């Protein structure tokens, strides 16, 4: 059974068909018949690449333009700052070209072509028979890596935009490894002390390389069995890479890859036993597109369906899932590996998740606001999830104390007084202390009341009445050590002043007997 079967499921997103801003009431079909082979997000826009060399740019307002980046084929896209990096071919035969486009500078309805490098000139083989298939660039624009179908990876360190040496002075940090399959993913993370971690994903393996001064100082082969080019995602800010295989989703951290005795990372059984078609990250969510058996197959064409599932790994819940009636890929030719055209794809535009359907329909998953999500959780009495959700939300702090109050009331009603008091502690400053005190004045609950009152005295929200109640609780529970420690925190002048405090707080004789040791 997949671990995500045990995760709680919610409907935290709304799926809506995107409307054409220029034709009210009609669907937006600006991407109809576009066969997306690669994509990348850059700023407030997304770039969708076709295998035949065309690139569509789509922004949040649905403004779009198209340009022919390559005459023959487009293999990979990557965005860094205002630049778009692409790999493709302008002529028949393998002759891969790296092009650097300036995304914010248009000339003749296309981005300005800033630089162009024939990769055959830098590949160790010295000829064009080995195609490049992957590219990544660090956001500092000081590090770029290119992967090839034979497993070779080349790296350049320096000013990518200005250095003339970009045309020649690359170095190889991964040799050709045909048995591992072609490079399907690359990611670069910078560490302190001028160190760089490069993740290399192939169809059969995942490796990390620690590089210092162009020298590989540590290499690790990770547990992941590799992934297709769409089944991994990387967060440069945290140095975290996530890789999806059929049975597992693997998580690795760049700063842990320096360990010479090996680093296993962690894994979760998300979408287990289902073929993964795509993995992307949107905000704090991971989104998986999987191939599954259709619930009600009516023909060979509808034997399978696709499922979109939005995971919140930190909260361990599923925020949304929906089935899509047709497969996300179709194949042409007797050899199913010859052509692989995607007719449905997930992508993100300005942190919004989009689904491009088979018929060209564009749908958007819109996350509900925090109040709407909390209402869903409150109806299910899932206050623990509500706390996690509020803590991870920008405006969640203002809701936390009220969530803890509701959670405390729920636990109190269930007779779980210990955990309830822990929740009530979190409400100090919002919930009136008398509300909690009245609930715990029963003799069997005085210990929990002490816990609350002790926490209250660690803040500025207590008064003399609360102090009196706490001291009386200590007296009835015969907690001499706790009473002494508490009184010493109020006065350090010895027993006489403590006795004066008893008089001041109208303590009964039992308290005086306890302090006197009787």
From TrEMBL:
GO CC field: HOPS complex; late endosome membrane
InterPro entries linked to this entry: CHCR_PEP5_VPS11 (IPR057308), Clathrin_H-chain/VPS_repeat (IPR000547), PEP5_VPS11_N (IPR057307)
Cross-referenced PROSITE patterns: CHCR
Parts forming coiled coils: none
Keyword terms of this UniProt record: Membrane, Metal-binding, Protein transport, Transport, Zinc, Zinc-finger
Compartments where located: Late endosome membrane
Protein's name in the database: Vacuolar protein sorting-associated protein 11 homolog
Lineage: Eukaryota, Metazoa, Ecdysozoa, Nematoda, Chromadorea
């Amino acid at each position: 059974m997949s671990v995500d079967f045990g995760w709680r499921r919610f409907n935290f997103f709304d799926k809506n068909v995107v409307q054409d801003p220029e034709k009210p009431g009609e669907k937006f079909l600006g991407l109809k018949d576009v066969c997306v082979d690669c994509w990348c997000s850059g700023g407030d826009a997304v770039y969708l690449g076709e295998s035949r060399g065309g690139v569509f740019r789509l922004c949040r307002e649905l403004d779009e333009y198209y340009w022919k980046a390559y005459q023959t084929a487009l293999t990979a896209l990557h965005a860094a700052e205002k630049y778009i990096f692409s790999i493709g071919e302008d002529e028949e035969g393998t002759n891969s070209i790296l092009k650097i486009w300036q995304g914010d500078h248009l000339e003749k309805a296309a981005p300005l072509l800033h630089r162009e490098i024939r990769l055959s000139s830098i590949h160790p083989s010295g000829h064009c028979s080995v195609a490049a298939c992957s590219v990544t660039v660090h956001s500092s624009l000081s590090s770029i890596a290119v992967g090839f179908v034979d497993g070779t990876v080349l790296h350049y360190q320096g000013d990518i935009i200005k250095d003339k040496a970009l045309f020649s002075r690359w170095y190889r940090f991964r040799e050709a490894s045909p048995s591992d399959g072609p490079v399907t993913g690359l990611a670069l993370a910078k560490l302190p002390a001028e160190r760089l971690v490069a993740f290399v994903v192939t169809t059969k393996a995942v490796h990390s390389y620690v590089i210092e001064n162009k020298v590989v100082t540590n290499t690790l082969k990770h547990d992941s069995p590799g992934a297709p080019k769409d089944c991994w995602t990387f967060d440069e800010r945290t140095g975290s890479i996530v890789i999806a295989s059929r049975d597992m989703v693997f998580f690795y951290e760049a700063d842990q890859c320096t360990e010479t005795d090996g680093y296993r990372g962690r894994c979760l059984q998300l979408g287990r036993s289902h073929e993964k078609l795509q993995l992307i990250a949107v905000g704090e969510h991971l989104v998986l597109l999987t191939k599954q058996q259709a619930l009600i197959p009516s023909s060979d064409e509808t034997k399978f369906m696709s499922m979109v599932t939005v995971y919140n790994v930190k909260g361990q819940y599923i925020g949304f899932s929906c089935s899509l009636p047709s497969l996300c890929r179709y194949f042409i030719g007797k050899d199913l590996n010859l052509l692989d055209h995607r007719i449905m794809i997930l992508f993100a535009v300005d942190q919004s998740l989009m689904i491009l359907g088979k018929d060209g329909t564009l749908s958007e998953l819109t996350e509900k606001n925090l109040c709407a999500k909390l209402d869903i959780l409150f109806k299910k009495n899932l206050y623990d999830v509500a706390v996690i959700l509020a803590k991870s939300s920008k405006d969640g702090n203002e809701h936390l104390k009220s969530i803890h109050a509701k959670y405390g009331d729920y636990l109190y009603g269930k007779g779980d007084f210990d955990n309830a008091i822990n929740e009530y502690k979190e409400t100090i400053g919002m919930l009136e202390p008398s509300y909690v005190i009245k609930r715990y004045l029963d003799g069997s609950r005085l210990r929990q009341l002490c816990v609350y009152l002790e926490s209250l005295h660690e803040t500025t929200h207590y008064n003399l009445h609360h102090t009196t109640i706490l001291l009386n609780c200590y007296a009835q529970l015969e907690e001499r050590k706790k009473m002494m420690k508490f009184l010493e925190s109020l006065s350090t002048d010895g027993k006489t002043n403590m006795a004066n405090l008893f008089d001041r707080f109208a303590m009964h004789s039992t308290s005086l007997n306890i302090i006197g040791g009787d």
